[in-house]
TrEMBL record:
UniProt KW Membrane keyword: yes
Protein name: Uncharacterized protein
Transmembrane segments: 122-144
InterPro entries listed in its UniProt record: DUF6766
Pfam families given in the database record: DUF6766 (PF20554)
Amino acid sequence: MKNFLRNNSLSLSFFVLFLASLGAQTIFGFKEHNKELIEDGANAITFLSYLTSGHFIQSTFENWESEFLQMALFVVMTIFLQQKGSSESKDFDKDEEVDREPSANKKDAPWPVKKGGWILAIYKHSLTIILFLLFLVSFIFHFYGSLKDENEKLSLKGLPLESALNYIGDSRFWFESFQNWQSEFLSVFAIVILSIYFRQIGSSQSKPVDAPNMETGE
């Protein structure tokens, strides 16, 4: 157990932070949604009902959507684009380990590498594929939750409900998306640029403290 915790401490720590944050979001979102319902003259809902409400689904997945989009684009763009001096960029002036073709003879190589063929062809791009799939799933759930929340509000007001076809072009849905996308793109821009001039000793996301500013990569 001690070795497991040591070997997986980074992922476990962030997963615990994720669960704690999701729990807090759910509790406060439940209170906020009920407050809005009461203000609109409706009855408060139960906690279990809130978990299937449009308010909860929309607020959760619109954030996941932007995170997976940011990571997918960052993985893809760092293949072809460079930022001189950044620890988050490849150095195109020298050979990079990540660019070499995989060898089935390498000790402990993953099974798709040893299998070869189309399985290896997919595996070589599997990180990008899974991130874009997670983005797509999150996007669909965000759209579903946002549409459901919108129709719940319209129903309370006695107004006609929105169809999925009409809502895909609605300003509310795209406002929810872009307000998250822009923050994710800003955070990537910040780490790419700031890692040129600033350091954090001991972090894999930083260059060595004594590395020149224009030295590219870790």
